[in-house]
Amino acid sequence: MSSPVKEPLCTWRGKVAHDWVDYNGHLRDAYYMVIFSFASDGLMDLIGMDAQGRQTTGHTLYTLETHLSYLLEVKEGADVEVFTHIVGLDAKRLHLCHGLYLQGGAALLAANEQMLINIDSARARSAPFAAQAGERLRALAQPHLALPRPSYAGRSIALAPPKLVTPHG
Amino acid sequence: MSSPVKEPLCTWRGKVAHDWVDYNGHLRDAYYMVIFSFASDGLMDLIGMDAQGRQTTGHTLYTLETHLSYLLEVKEGADVEVFTHIVGLDAKRLHLCHGLYLQGGAALLAANEQMLINIDSARARSAPFAAQAGERLRALAQPHLALPRPSYAGRSIALAPPKLVTPHG
Description:
- The structure is a homodimer.
- Chain A has helices at about 30-45, 50-55, 130-145; strands spanning about 10-15, 60-70, 80-90, 95-100, 110-120, 125.
- Chain A has about 170 residues and is of the alpha+beta class.
- In chain A, strands 1, 2, 3, 4, 5 and 6 form a six-stranded antiparallel beta sheet that branches.
């Protein structure tokens, strides 16, 4: 199964905090999303939409929709990193896939898809990306868009239809 | 657009905490998921899978996959509640839709879909629901399964194809 591309875009590195784990010492489902939210902040920093950039332009990004597939358990204290694949981009929307890994590891721990929209805060309305952010996004996206689309993009959730039990099944 | 059913299953009530909001005082994207995770805990309590029940049976629920649609901003201190619609159930999997509302409010603030699986912790493998949990789930699910499916169930994320600009558009 193809995973989010591991090069070149690492958007977050850190340690699984005590407050993020459940009674079993495993990362609690919602805190995978906290990590992926930090990764989106990391991408914003890379395109000049850090706190200073947001103040200068009055623009920020809102999350419209997100989809998360949990693949492996992650323990308290684990050193993890997120790699990000831009899978779509238009004048004001950004569609990306984050993948969570142990630092230096190859196994995909969780896959997160996000659709983000650029917002002009003063007007509280969506607006095209500011010039610098748009340019940087296009530059980052270009090699990504040529890569195979991550298999976790575009999933929907469903119970499979019941399996037929054959006489010799 | 049809929303998750508001009756009869309230699974969480509480207040948007200071730690959950961003620099604008709005609930941060990942913390919607924290609230929905608490709502899944609330459902577990309702079916006897609280801490004591988990200890007795050795069973717990893992989240396999989740999908969240952000519809409206939520402010620090807001009193909110989650209503839950069971949209699918088999021997060991539970498919549900949570809806977030202001307490007593009609507007859907966010919609979250989850696929959960029953786990036998001792064997660290999936297993059919224990008898009590399975019975309670079937009883809760029966009226829900007869209702219209929430419109947010089964969504996938995609950028719409670019709109054609007509000469008179």
